Amino acid sequence: MTSAHKQPNYIGVFWWLLALTILEVGVIFMPMARLLIAILLVGMAMSKAALVAMYFMHLKFERRTLGLIALTPLVLCVLLIFALLPDLSATPHRSTEPPQAPATSH
Amino acid sequence: MSQVAALHTAVEPAESPLTPESWGKLGMWIFLAGDAMSFGALLAGYGALRYGSADWPLPSKVLGVGLTAFMTFLLICSSVTMVLALAAIQRGDQRGLRKFLSLTVLSGVMFLGMQAYEWTHLIHDGLTLTGNPFGAVLFGTTFFIITGFHGAHVTGGVVYLSCYLIQALRGRLGQGSANAIEIAALYWHFVDLVWILVFTFVYLL
After folding, report:
1. Do A88 and B51 touch (CB under 8 A)?
2. Global pTM?
């Protein structure tokens, strides 16, 4: 970076991060479908991560190739999730046995 | 210039192709990309185990979301104080550097204290690496491994920044050290970024 570009409004970024964190905590108590909550939470988390990377880590002002290096782990993690798919059980299993009815003596 | 130094510059270009300030900054970015893959693998593994479990507890019912939301707030504040410390050293403001670097280290220490408090309570409630009274045993295993791995990073960051804080307090960090502080700041912001994801995937989802 760093001295070559205009300094971003760090306090403005802070307020955005704070607002998104409050919204995230609020969303989990909203009467909505779990899938919708999950989509909202992931979207907000990714937005917060992007704000930190772009403004606090100054990626917005760096050369594009450096951004590609920073994005590589994200791409590899998506590939890893696809690689794990065949190992996922089609029917979720319990790690603990459900409580059994007491045995009756004959 | 000595013969060794002359040979050295002949082998290695003086300027990094992606980060003209220093090779160290490029090195830190590459290290962080590798470290991000470690966290990514842990979170992907967490997702796979959770998907395959029928009795995975809802984290927000078991874990203290209020406390961890405050811990998230604390790390965000520490990222702001870190960029302000960097801005201070770049303009040669020694007082600002010492103040904001101290606040960053203090936030990191407070975060670790709160994590220790949270862990103590959860262990007291029976949640351990090998036991979980609320459902799937692997919930406890993955929780402690992921938050512990992150906590180890925060500890490393606190030590890293404390070394610079001591130098700043002794007046040994001039404007020429701005690049070193920028590299340390990259690490600290990465720790904050990872916590944002851990907070969402492990505590809220």
Report:
1. yes
2. 0.87
Tell me if B57 sits within 8 A of B133, measured CB to CB. Answer: no
CATH 3.40.50.2300 at B22-204, yes or no:
no
* Residue of chain B nearest A27, judged by CA positions: B204
CB-based contact, A89 to chain B, within 8 Å: yes
Q: Which of residues 100-119 of B touch A (CB under 8 A)?
A: none
* Least confident among A81-95, B18-32, B48-62, B106-120: A81-95
Residue A83: strand, helix, or coil:
helix
Share of chain B above pLDDT 90, in %: 67
Distance CA B112, CA B128 (A): 18
Using an 8 Å Cβ cutoff, are B40 and A80 in contact? yes
Q: How far is B169 from chain A (nearest CA, A)?
A: 24
Q: Do B83 and A11 touch (CB under 8 A)?
A: no
Boundaries of every domain in chain B: 22-204
pLDDT digit string, tens, across residues B32-58: 999 999 999 999 999 888 888 888 898
The residue in chain A having the minimum alpha-carbon distance to the alpha carbon of residue B186 is: A57
Give the minimum alpha-carbon distance from A93 to chain B in angstroms, rounded to a whole number: 5
Residue B71 in tokens? 């811990």
Of residues B196 and B2, the one with the higher pLDDT is B196
